[in-house]
Structures are given as C-alpha cells and as structure tokens.
Design brief:
Layout (H helix, E strand, L loop, with lengths): L12 H5 L1 E2 L13 E4 L10 E4 L5 E3 L5 H11 L4 H8 L14 E2 L15 E4 L6 E2 H34 L3 H25 L3 H4 L3
Antiparallel strand pairs: 1-2, 2-3, 3-4, 5-6, 6-7
Helix pairs in contact: 2-3, 4-5
C-alpha cells in the first residue's frame, strides 16, 4: 500500500494577502510593525499598510502619522518597546495639508467604520485652518471661560459662608476650599490668557 504524500502546509496569511516588506524607501521605524501590499495583486492599495499586530489597514497617503496613531491608540501597552517608541513620538497634528477647497479625508485615526466627514478649509497657503479645528478651539475657550466663572462664583459663595462660620474646624475647611477654587480660577485664567493678577479682582 502506497503511503500518501503529506499535504503541503497551508499558505501563510501574508502570502494569501500578498503582503510584502515595506521596502527601503520606507525608513521610518514605525514601518517595522506593518506590511505593504504587493501592488501586482493589489494596485488599489498603493497607499495602504497592514498592521502586523492586528491586521488593520491604515492609510499612508498623508505620511506615517496614521501608522503612529494606530500604534499609540491600539498597541502601545502591548510591549515595552512599543510603549517607548510611541511615547517618544508626539501625536502628529491633525490639520490637513491641503491649502484650499474641500478634502475628503481627514488626517486622523482611521479606527472608525463611520464614513469620514468632509472638512472645509479656510485661508490659503501656510495659514489654512480647518473649520473643525476652529470650532474645537472656540468650544474649548467657552468651556474654560465657564469653568473660570464657576470658580469665581463659588469663591464668592464660600466667602459669604466663611463670614458666618463660628466653628474653627468649619473655618479651616472653608478656607481650604476657597484656596482650591482660587487655584482652579488661576489655572483657567492662564488658559484664557487673562492677566492672572488682574483676574483675581475681576
């Protein structure tokens, strides 16, 4: 009876997907965690990398920022090497590089299955700023102003409470609270660009 020849081992996932090493032109250390697609089999994926750790496709059309963000958000806690590499690299800015018009892709973490919203860009050249960025800045300033006003109002209430306090333990507690809210008010004054000394009297 003839022995059956053993079956060949199943192809590696990399072979099935036609993944290749990034190549000498892609020198960033972050490429060590990604594979590129073989363009003979995937001509539409010239600007796509596949994460070797989780199999997620990441766009590299705008550079390696997406690779960095993916590692920071998804894999930084998986090894000491990754934690060190991603911690030493500041999160790239999310402002679009295009200077005018509307762009269909935002530069950001590509983890969502939701369709990407379009971002209007105002200005031109190096002064181009996305409307989303401006909206976020305005909301942040509104939040900081609200927190500053809340701290100011609370300090006023605590001072009134302190004026009528008679037990030393209560007095100490109220004074500590006042100092805490003064520190908070000072912090938000700095964030808002207020003159801190003048803001104490505002």
């Amino acid at each position: 009876m003839e022995e059956e020849e053993p079956l060949p081992p199943p192809p590696k996932l990399e072979d099935e997907l036609h993944l290749v090493d990034p190549g000498p032109k892609r020198r960033s250390k972050f490429w060590n965690y990604y594979k590129a697609y073989d363009l003979d089999h995937h001509p539409d994926k010239a600007h796509t990398a596949r994460c070797s750790l989780c199999g997620k496709d990441i766009s590299v059309k705008q550079g390696t920022g997406g690779l960095v963000r993916h590692l920071q958000h998804r894999h930084a806690d998986e090894s000491d090497d990754l934690a060190a590499i991603t911690a030493s690299y500041p999160t790239p800015a999310t402002l679009p590089r295009q200077s005018v018009g509307t762009i269909g892709e935002e530069r950001g973490e590509e983890e969502s299955d939701q369709p990407r919203k379009k971002t209007r860009v105002v200005g031109n050249g190096n002064n181009a700023i996305s409307v989303d960025f401006l909206d976020a800045k305005i909301k942040r300033e509104e939040h900081n102003l609200k927190m500053w006003r809340d701290a100011k109002s609370t300090i006023k209430e605590l001072k009134e409470e302190l004026a009528s306090a008679t037990v030393q333990e209560d007095i100490d507690e109220i004074e500590a609270d006042i100092q805490g809210f003064r520190d908070r008010k000072t912090l938000y004054a700095k964030l808002l660009g207020f003159d801190v000394m003048r803001s104490e009297g505002v």
